[in-house]
Amino acid sequence: MGPMAQKAAAMISLIGKKRSSGFLFVELLISVLIMSVGLILILNSFIQSLRAIEYSDDYFKACLFLEDKAFEVYNSDKKEGFSKGSFNDFNDKFSWELNVAKLEEAGLNEISLKVMWYERNKEHDVPIFTYL
Q: With pLDDT > 90 as the criterion, what percentage of the chain qualifies?
């Protein structure tokens, strides 16, 4: 094999080989994009979990306030009519509405009590309806 044939064989062997062992810029951009999408999905699920925990906490507090107000109504002289107010705890975040109606034929009072709070411009409430 002559020198010309050796040069031709060397050039043919170089054509099939990759000259650089590093990453291409496009490959790097795609991998960063995939990692960013995954990170966004993980953060979104984390934020949704925090919102669910916050809502559950508020719901639990509202149920405690509802129970407290219901015992207060039970132990007081129930006057017919509508009344409302707010709880002084938690920066007046929670409020209540009470409606008492007399049922003459049964000798009972129909009690409608609701505890409400606002979160993200939406009203949430926990109602209770009973007869005393």
A: 33
Q: Which helix (H) or strand (E) holds 116?
A: strand 108-119
CA pair distance 6, 18, nearest whole angstrom: 20
What domains lie within the chain, and their CATH numbers? 27-131 (3.30.1300)
Backbone φ/ψ region at 81: left (φ over 0), alpha (ψ -120 to 50), beta: left
Q: What is the pLDDT of residues 97-125, one digit of tens each?
A: 999 888 888 778 888 999 999 888 888 99
Position 92 scores a pLDDT of 77
Q: How far apart are CA 58 and CA 89, in angstroms?
A: 12
**Which amino acid, one-letter code, is at 27?**
E
